[in-house]
TrEMBL record:
Organism this protein belongs to: Micromonospora arborensis
Alphabetized PANTHER family for the sequence: CONSERVED COMPONENT OF ABC TRANSPORTER FOR NATURAL AMINO ACIDS-RELATED, HIGH-AFFINITY BRANCHED-CHAIN AMINO ACID TRANSPORT ATP-BINDING PROTEIN
InterPro entries the record matches: AAA+_ATPase (IPR003593), ABC_AA/LPS_Transport (IPR051120), ABC_transporter-like_ATP-bd (IPR003439), ABC_transptr_urea_ATP-bd_UrtD (IPR017781), BCA_ABC_TP_C (IPR032823), P-loop_NTPase (IPR027417)
GO cellular component: plasma membrane
SUPFAM superfamilies: P-loop containing nucleoside triphosphate hydrolases
Name this protein carries in UniProt: Urea ABC transporter ATP-binding protein UrtD
Keyword GTP-binding recorded: no
Length: 258
């Protein structure tokens, strides 16, 4: 859908400190183009802070490259223009505006002033495509505030799609969702990852098992383990951190037990 090339994310030795406390302590990870990488770890592991560093919200040392571009040191809006899109745990949609208007405003952030000045009666192609992808075409005219919780998350993802984000960083996208909404969200991630790279911060282990293509486990600001879901689940260090002790192969960390 984006039409642009598929890029991967390369994080090298990234550190973030707050008043002497090191929240991210030399993290390196490679997310190949088109991956759905889940970033997990106990509360306070540094997941959100790492994403804050990637998106320019906190100062960091080291290197973060997306495709050919170094992201560290650039302001937030420049990083966004390089195709890095992010959702937060709290919804950022305009509740009183329609689904279509929310997407149109998000798309407008990419448009030239001349294009914006021209009054258009038709729905722009990228907005129509995003409406289909996120499954909200039939709700296009409804106020975003009337959407179900899951639908609001999908609208936010749609807003990233119309901005032509090629790296999606999603913070707990299925928190508070029903089973059906989780399934639909997983299917949406699979669709968008066909021509984008996706990183998901998530505590929901059932969702992870079903939809992660790869997993990085953070603990105390460092990478504790990395690999496929099966490899990470079988790692005694991961079991130790989540459960306090290693478990038999086949068992796995669940939920927010840390
Ligand atoms: N602005 C800040 N100032 C000081 N400390 C901070 C700040 N932001 C985060 N921290 C600390 O950095 C550590 C990592 O926090 P972070 O929110 O990145 O963890 P997390 O893995 O995302 O946790 P959670 O799963 O609870 O969201 C925590 O100890 C947190 O208290």
């Amino acid at each position: 859908m984006s039409g642009d090339r598929l890029d991967g994310l390369s994080v090298r030795d990234v550190r973030v400190s707050f008043d002497g406390f090191t929240a991210v302590d030399g993290v390196s990870l490679e997310v190949p183009a088109g991956d759905i990488r889940f970033l997990i770890g106990p509360n306070g592991a540094g997941k959100t802070t790492l994403v804050d560093a990637i998106t320019g919200l906190v100062r960091a040392t080291g290197s973060v490259r997306f495709g050919d571009h170094e992201l560290l040191g650039r302001p937030v809006h420049r990083i966004s223009r390089l195709g890095i899109g992010r959702t937060f745990q709290t919804s950022a949609v305009f509740e009183e505006l329609s689904v279509l208007q929310n997407l149109d405003i998000a798309a407008g952030a990419r448009r030239s002033l001349a294009t914006l000045a021209r009054r258009r009666r038709e729905v722009p192609d990228e907005v129509a495509a995003a409406l289909e992808t996120i499954g909200l075409a039939e709700r296009a005219g409804h106020p975003a505030g009337t959407l179900a919780h899951g639908q609001k998350q999908w609208l936010e993802i749609g807003m990233l799609l119309v901005q032509d984000a090629r790296l999606l960083l999603l913070d707990e996208p299925v928190a508070g969702m029903s089973h059906e909404e989780r399934d639909a969200t997983g299917a949406l991630l699979e669709t968008v990852s066909q021509d984008r790279t996706v990183v998901v911060i998530e505590h929901d282990m059932d969702f992870l098992r079903r939809f992660a293509r790869s997993v990085t486990v953070l603990h105390a600001g460092r990478v504790l383990s990395e690999g496929t879901v099966a490899q990470v689940q079988a790692d005694p260090r991961v079991q130790e951190v989540y459960l306090g002790h290693p478990v038999d192969a086949g068992s796995a960390p669940t939920g927010r037990e840390a």
